[in-house]
Amino acid sequence: xxxxxxxxxxxxxxxxxxxxxxxxxxxxxxxxxxxxxxxxxxxxxxxxxxxxxxxxxxxxxxxxxxxxxxxxxxxxxxxxxxxxxxxxxxxxxxxxxxxxxxxxxxxxxxxxxxxxxxxxxxxxxxxxxxxxxxxxxxxxxxxxxxxxxxxxxxxxxxxxxxxxxxxxxxxxxxxxxxxxxxxxxxxxxxxxxxxxxxxxxxxxxx
Length: 206
Hints:
Blueprint: E1 4-11, E2 24-31, E3 39-46, H1 51-55, E4 76-83, E5 93-96, E6 103-106, E7 112-114, H2 130-143, E8 150-153, H3 159-170, E9 174-177, H4 182-190
Parallel strand pairs: 8-9
Antiparallel strand pairs: 1-2, 3-4, 3-6, 4-5, 5-7
Helix pairs in contact: 2-3
């Protein structure tokens, strides 16, 4: 069968300070048809998470850093375009570690089938994804605040921190957030509209 043309975004240079467009490049490549127990995933939505910036630096950490020329790492919501895998059908919506690419061959490892009718599928890249899991496990399973206790949250305007503040308040604790600057501090105190889905969960220090 004919191969398919795909595109990926790769790391072209180590960022110095803020990430620039020139730190990346587009690569075009051909994707073969899936073999036995494989499937072809078509990316629909890409994640954009804080950990990605750290993975661009050649620094030893909890996870291996990216080499120059590597496809940017990341989860995505994808559609099964072609399947020769017994557990997935064409048209299935999945959560997968495809990286920043339009098409990806997969053997099904670390791929989770999603129900697109349950919640908006992009929720699995946010509140039901890495950020939500980190917030929930860190606070409810490890921190376990009791009613009346005070929870101090660093990086409180970020994806994890903003959820920790809300979970702390729901547990009956007082939440104090630390954020970098007046604008971020105002956001985490005042956000409460339907547009953001946040609650005004943080308080000023006395």
